[in-house]
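Data deposition worksheet. Section B asks for the primary sequence of the deposited chain exactly as it was used as input, without tags or linkers unless they were present during the calculation. Section C holds the resulting structure in token form. Section D is free text for depositor observations; keep each observation to a single sentence. Incomplete worksheets are returned to the depositor.
Section A, Depositor: J.P.
Section B:
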Amino acid sequence: MQLGETNERSRNGTVLLEFGEKPFCRSRVFCYKKRMPGLVNRIVTLAFVALLPACASTRTAAVKNTTKSFTTVVVDAGHGGKDSGAYRRYGPPEKMIALDVAQRLNRKLRESQLKTVMTRNSDVFIELNDRVAIENAQKDAIFVSIHFNDSRRRKIRGFETYYHSGVSFDLANQIQAKLMTIPNSANGGVHTANFRVLRLASCPAVLVECGYLSNRSEGNKTRDSEYRELLADRIAEAIVEQRFGSGVYRGSTQVAAQPKPQAESSSGATGLAPDATHR
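Section C:
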């Protein structure tokens, strides 16, 4: 046996640890029994099982169901500043169109007599934890985050709405259903997700993916201000009807019934604020 190697030998149920062929321990009092590893494993397993209920219920119990009583809507424009989000050939960077739709949504909700709080109202970078702090600081609120999607598979398109807590499902489903009333839209579905702004929310919270910038059709539509107005209008309608009931919402007269994507001008104008920080 080489220096540094060990060996186990059993003698009358006692494990002898040997080092360089010389007994390291011969006394029954100071030696480990063979049954010790099994005992340790049982203790660890029991401790793990005991912790499972606490882990499973911590976040769910903290979410207050305000989907029928909220007075405030936290409107979150995804990304911003140094974080451009999705940026593809067929549309402006995600941070810009998300902000534009969020600002339009904010206006429509205020016109519907709801209080709003925006996590950002300009092209600035906001940490995820700061967004969570803003949403959780509001009383009787819901949280709606605006994003646009991206995929290497350019043919994928459609609206998707995400939630985490069970109390947020009705709101997510309502928003998805209203978006699907937009002509020629594709249904990406309602899904659960572990996004931080959803997972750590103490109120109903959803994240809306308003189409794929990587898709030629949907990416081009985002260049049209009337289409962005329509997106905001459908999301606002879902929120207002979630709170006050069906038929209450009165949409903006600016919304066209079936907007047509406008051709990009030679200067690349989209009606969005100029941006010099594309990645």
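Section D:
The two ends are 60 Å apart (CA to CA).
Strands lie at 6-11, 14-19, 22-23, 72-77, 115-118, 141-149, 159-163, 187-192, 205-212.
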